[in-house]
Amino acid sequence: MDQHECGVTVLFHNYFNDEYKIHGEMEAMAKPMSQLGNGEWKVTYVGVAEQDSLNPSLSSIQRFVARIERNPGFYVSLVMVPAYFINLLTIIALFMDIENVGEKISVGLTNIMAMTFILVILAADLPKTARILLLAIYVIVGLVIVMTSIFVVLLIPYFRKKWTSGHTDPRKSKIGKFWNNIEYILMLFSSSRI
């Protein structure tokens, strides 16, 4: 889970440690924890902690802490579910028995545009980190699967044309069986993966 801890440290540099004392106490909160936060974040902890200062001439340091946790429902409903259905429908459309390759390419390019739009949403909303987040990897893998499917769909008519020019039944030759198996495996893999 994506959790963050935000803290504010209070220390007075104007006084010596024998001239003041801060007591870290909190009153009961007006709202319960479940009502704090917004749709994207929920507050899991609010409190105060006293830390000893490393400088003996200063008093203890008071640290007010709030812990927040990201709600995954926002990203599941906005990214994962649409990406899943867009990819599933695209792969079904790509491997349907339609002879017009231009329509298949149009469907594939539309999917690439939609997935790129989802990646733009992710880039704007997710925090910038040194590693790629799992949600972005999910979308990128779906994009790679669709691009591979488009490539296979473009190759299938080429090989069918090559097989028919040799006057052999393409489904009975070794290469024909191989490509039919590849097409079948990709259809199964795509429908189970996406």
From TrEMBL:
Transmembrane found in the keyword field: yes
InterPro entries hit by this protein: Neur_channel, Neuro-gated_channel_TM_sf, Neuro_actylchol_rec, Neurotrans-gated_channel_TM
One Pfam family here: Neur_chan_memb
Coiled coil start-end: none
An example Gene Ontology biological process: regulation of membrane potential
Domain named Neurotransmitter-gated ion-channel transmembrane: residues: 80-172
Origin: domain of life: Eukaryota
Transmembrane segments: 74-95, 107-126, 132-156
A GO term from the CC aspect: transmembrane transporter complex
Molecular function, one GO term: transmitter-gated monoatomic ion channel activity involved in regulation of postsynaptic membrane potential
Keywords from the named record: Membrane, Transmembrane, Transmembrane helix
Keyword Protein biosynthesis annotated: no
Annotated protein name in UniProt: Protein CBG01449
